[in-house]
Design a protein that fits this description.
Radius of gyration: 32 Å
Shape: rod-shaped
Strand content: 15-25%
Number of helices: 9
Structural class: alpha/beta
CATH topology of the largest domain: D-Maltodextrin-Binding Protein, domain 2
CATH architecture of the largest domain: 3-Layer(aba) Sandwich
Distance between the termini: 71 Å
Length: about 325
């Protein structure tokens, strides 16, 4: 059977065209080098080198074999390099889940950071709501998600990557769009409000309920996604409470208004005025070297704000 040592021995002799120099280059003596070449020729079944007492030359078959030997050794070296990079977390494939609104302020900067710091990591994107991301991680379909709490902390680990305020999306021309101050819960008394499904969109449902606890709005619709809520606002079906980054969805017919204290709950938040959190989530106990490197890069990023990099708030 052909071995890599035999191939390397052949390449050394083919390049030096001298057994003595080739043996010195390989730090071995001539007799074992000659045996390596003989074993290789028996395995291949052809003569690769013409040699006598005065000269060594490649046969035509030897010249062709040399080209393939170069490719083989390059492949072996490359395979080892890839394995080392994967073991060190610098290469591999990251299957990343994200929600539509999270893509506005976080996804772009994150992808640019990974391209710059971990160019050997290929990122495959999957747009999914939070519940679907959690299911995908549990089934091994996703490595990492950008999702909203709450999570099953027995199965998932998480890290906050972004905080922002809550704001009001109102139809353009609506009376709430004309206030020159942040809106209070009382401003929504009797106002049609688009809320969120308490099961599928529990996080934003609870944020909305919490802010409007002492108000008496008319809940007209319950939706699953922020974009759907904004589109219904544009259609004049009511107002909605949305994360501040929704301002950059670019939906016409919608005005945005700040909320008093950033829409925070009266009991206080870890970061007052920015109650909306986005987390990186992953399977508990399943941190590959690559995922550890990605999480390190996320930890180095400064994404705590309301305006996506390169954008100007309206």
């Amino acid at each position: 059977m052909m071995t890599l040592d035999q191939v390397r021995a052949f390449v050394a002799v083919a390049e030096e065209l001298h057994y003595g120099r080739a043996a010195e280059r390989l730090q071995m003596t001539q007799p074992p080098l000659s045996r390596q070449i003989q074993k290789l020729e028996r395995t291949v079944g052809v003569t690769l080198l013409d040699r006598d007492n005065r000269r060594v030359a490649l046969t035509e078959a030897g010249g062709a074999f040399l080209d393939e030997a170069y490719r083989l050794l390059a492949l072996v070296e490359s395979a080892g390099d890839v394995a080392r990079r994967i073991d060190g977390g610098a290469a591999g494939t990251l299957r990343l889940g994200f929600t539509a609104v999270s893509a506005i302020g976080v996804l772009g900067p994150l992808l640019r950071e990974l391209d710059a710091s971990l160019p050997g990591v290929d990122v495959i994107l999957h747009e999914r709501v939070t519940a679907a991301q959690a299911d995908g991680i549990r089934r091994g379909e996703l490595d990492l998600g950008l999702a909203r709490p709450p999570f099953d902390t027995e199965e998932l680990e998480s890290r906050i990557v972004f905080r922002e305020a809550l704001c009001a999306a109102v139809p353009a021309g609506h009376r709430l769009a004309g206030f020159d101050r942040p809106l209070t819960p009382g401003d929504f008394d009797g106002v049609p409000v688009i809320s969120y499904n308490p099961v599928q969109s529990r996080y934003f449902h609870e944020l909305t309920v919490r802010f409007l606890t002492n108000a008496h709005p008319r809940v007209e619709q319950q939706v699953h996604q922020i974009l759907t809520a904004v589109l219904l606002v544009a259609a004049g079906r009511g107002c909605a409470l949305v994360p501040a980054s929704a301002r950059f969805l670019g939906v016409e017919g919608v005005a945005y208004a700040d909320l008093v204290d950033g829409g925070g709950d009266p009991d206080g938040n870890e970061v007052p005025g920015k109650p909306v959190e986005l987390h990186a989530i992953w399977a508990r106990g399943r941190r590959s070297p690559m995922l550890r490197r990605v999480l390190t890069q996320i930890g180095r990023m400064h994404l705590d704000g309301e305006t996506p990099p390169g954008r100007t708030a309206p």
